[in-house]
Each structure stands twice: as structure tokens, then as C-alpha cells.
Design brief:
- By secondary structure, this protein is an alpha/beta fold.
- It has a single domain, classed as Rossmann fold (3-Layer(aba) Sandwich), CATH 3.40.50.
- Helix content is 40%, strand content 14%.
- It is built from 10 helices and 9 strands.
- The strands form 2 sheets. It has a 7-stranded parallel β-sheet with strand order 3-2-1-4-5-6-8, with helices on both faces. Strands 7-9 form a two-stranded parallel ribbon.
- Helix 2 crosses helix 3 and helix 3 runs parallel beside helix 4.
- The longest helix has 14 residues.
- The structure holds NADP nicotinamide-adenine-dinucleotide phosphate.
- The site of NADP nicotinamide-adenine-dinucleotide phosphate (NAP) has 28 residues, from helix 1 and helix 3.
Length: 258
Amino acid sequence: MLLITGATGTTGREVVRLLTDRGAAFRAMSRTPTGDQVHGDHTDPASLDRAMEGVDAVFLLGPGTSDAPSYDLALLDAAKHADVRKVVKLGAIPVGPIGARHRPGEEAARAFPVWTLLRPSMFATNSLQWVPQVAAGEPIPNPMGTTRFGIVDPRDLAEVAVRALLDDDHHGRTYTLTGPELLNVPEQVAVLSELLGRTLSTVDLPLEALPAEYAEGLRAALSGEGSFLSGDVADVLGRPARGYATWARENYPGLAST
Ligand SMILES: NC(=O)c1ccc[n+]([C@@H]2O[C@H](COP(=O)([O-])OP(=O)(O)OC[C@H]3O[C@@H](n4cnc5c(N)ncnc54)[C@H](OP(=O)(O)O)[C@@H]3O)[C@@H](O)[C@H]2O)c1
């Protein structure tokens, strides 16, 4: 039995879809469960104990906020009490405060008999935040200047996570998960412009205009320390990582159904 946390989010939803396709036995956790999901909240240890009953492996994905350490440690504490054997934890490329928020959970995950750490770069799905500006023909606010990131498709993250959950060959591995190319925001917007057949533009946004917690994480990322590519998606999946244009063609509103 697998427990999928973060099951209602961007990556977790995809993990659930892939496991369903494979006929795997799993439980999907949410604070507000629907259907056959189970209730679990990191601030309610009894709910985590119930969610962990009879579980062999956990996919650990939580908010990347300053809550991340307490979320991860509460989940892993419950997993330890339930004798869970395997933990697959999704964190982030270890840069600045965001990397630091995932470190306690990564350390705790390493104490399990079988563990795999997934460290993704910026998600392609972040550009869904621009949908209102794209729809209105307004400039897209860009707080990231020209810093490039190895934009990764969360579907690739989910596929790697499912491999690690179903197969012990990934024990003890830390995978850095990026897409196949480094892109900055204006370059992502240029891809969308071409695919949508419309001219889209960006407008620089000072970090000070963002919520403090988000700005703090971004400031470190803008140093370029996390601007690199990794071949881990291709190594694990045996095929190239999906590029940003592929993600956009298959997911961006106005493009996805064409
Ligand atoms: N976005 C990026 O560019 C990026 C880059 C690198 C790493 N990351 C990392 O990726 C993770 C976010 O992944 P995502 O975008 O796939 O997730 P997401 O869409 O933000 O969803 C977050 C999930 O966490 C669950 N959750 C939040 N608080 C919870 C709590 N108190 N107890 C139980 N569950 C809780 C939510 O479930 P319910 O609401 O159903 O309870 C939801 O399913 C973060 O750890 C972040 O650091 C993101």
C-alpha cells in the first residue's frame, strides 16, 4: 500500500493518475478529502497515524512554504510509528531558503530503510499564473529578470516518483529533476507567443512587490545558483525530459485541446 500526500496538488494529482493507470494499491491524502481520498493534516497527528495504517511506502510532498519542515517531520514521524519501509520525498534544488526548508525532511527521509530524494527545478505549471494577463492581452509580470531555470514538466516529476515508489532500484538516490533546456521568463513567454500566435510581453516586477516569503525564496534563486540542467529525468525514464513547448502545447489554456 502506498500513501500519496499532496495528492490534490500539481504533481500529486499526476502521481495518482499514473498509479491508477498501473492498477497500483494506493491511498491519496488530503486535508479536505473527496471520493475515496483519506483525511490527513500535518497539524493533526492522529489523522496522519490513521492515514499511515498498513502503508509500505509514502510519497512525501507538501507546501514549499516555511511550514515545510514541520509538515515533513510530522508526516515522517507518523510513517516511522507505522513502520513504513520506503519514503520518496519531493523537495527542491537546494538553493537558498527553499532548499533549507526541505533539508530537515530530506534528513529524516534518509533514516528509512528505502528512500529516494527528488529535487526539481522550477515547474512549467508556474506559468499558469499568467493566464489572466494572457487572456487580457496585458504584459506578464516578471520578478525573475533574465535568470534561466531548467523548467521541468511536473508530469516528468510524477513519472520519476512513481518509478521510485514501485521499484526499489532507486534506493539511496538523490535525483535533480530539470527539463531539457534553460529558459527565463521572457523566453517562456516567447514560446507561448509563438504557440498562441499572439504577441505577448513581460514587465519587470520588483521582488518587493511579492509576498515576503515568496520573495525570499526567489531572491536566492535569482543568483543563478540553481540555473543548470540535469540528465536525471532521462536516466530514470529512458527518454528525454519533456520541454516547455511540449508542456505548453498540451496544457496551456487555449492550446491544450488543439
Ligand atoms: N512550483 C515550483 O516551481 C517548485 C519548484 C521546486 C520545488 N517545488 C516544491 O514542490 C512542492 C509543491 O508541489 P506541487 O506544486 O505539486 O503542490 P501544490 O499544487 O502546491 O499542492 C500542495 C499539496 O500539499 C497539500 N498540503 C498542503 N498543506 C497541507 C497540510 N497541512 N497537510 C496535508 N497536506 C497539505 C495540499 O493538499 P490539500 O490541500 O488537499 O490538503 C496539496 O495537495 C513544494 O514542496 C515546493 O517546494 C515547487
